[in-house]
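Progress note, project year one: complex with iron/sulfur cluster.
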Amino acid sequence: MPIVARVEAGDSDFETSLQRGRRGEVDFESAWSLFSGASQRNKALELFSLASGIRDEKLGRELVLSAHIHMITSCEVSPSCLYCSLSSADRSISKERSRLTTRELIQGVKYAVDKGVQSIVLVGGTDLGGLDSPVRRAVEKVREITDIDLAIDVGPSLSQETVRWLKDEKVSTVYCSIETVTPSAFTKAKPGDSLNARIECMAMLEGAGVKLGNVVMNGLGSTADLLRSILCLKRFKSLSYLYISTFRPVKGTPWEGKRPASVWTSLKALSIARLVFPRAHVGLAEVGVEDPGNIARTPFQLLAGGGNALAGVLVYKERRINNMDLIRSCASSLGFETRYLTV
Ligand code: SF4
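Model obtained:
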């Protein structure tokens, strides 16, 4: 009898939290209730259905495909983050994330534009001392080729003056990912990086009037840490892109022996993120080097309320991944349209 009473209370918590989610009033307690309730399949489907409905209402069912080009700057964080492929002792892995030459950057951008992407994210490493000059040089080179929408992702490495310059160059979005808001989890995974610098940089970017992008990682702390990391971003009104990455051990890194994080956890967190940020582009992060199998998750993230900007092309030092056709075909079978540029 007492067990039945507890289950009924849990069901009612879940339904109350769904109603809060529908109204965009998600706090930690309701996020936790949604997450734990969704360990039951029928409740997970209810959560996904609500999140997808909100995505359809606020953003529609048209996907925008982008390219992620790695790396426009080298990463000076020392030691490298323990999960990152840059910390791999296997050179064939770490070199994929080494800085592109100007020629390689130009070739990568031309390749992405040729495939019809609608925007390009230029990804680089982090240098807490600043990366203004290499970022400006990279943007200038790209602008010689295309006026496509651009985003920059180099951590807290930009001055306010350069952010203003980037806006003039029609860079619409700047990412400065926190990965986790829990200081102990951040320091454990990223001993050479600074959470405070990342949060301060987000505030500076918002003040400068650019759109914000962020990635939080499932696997850096507990599930509660993951939910808190999503919720803490509510303070940034211009958050426009939020992706959830799923830790997967990379050969040769200090975290090689750690257990991979659960994609199911990431999908539930994605649905909750959709309720928190109804109008943002929300999805699973695409990281071809750390997590090569992730394109197969496209239908699941769309069903969980993800969209509407997905990475169709990934460019690395020696590898190019073109998922444009796979995403289009999967999207079309689920009733989505994809926009792309003709060149
Ligand atoms: S800051 Fe980014 S690129 Fe640099 S080591 Fe950490 S995860 Fe890798």
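The chain has a mean pLDDT of 93.
The radius of gyration is 20 Å.
No further modelling is planned for this target in the current period.
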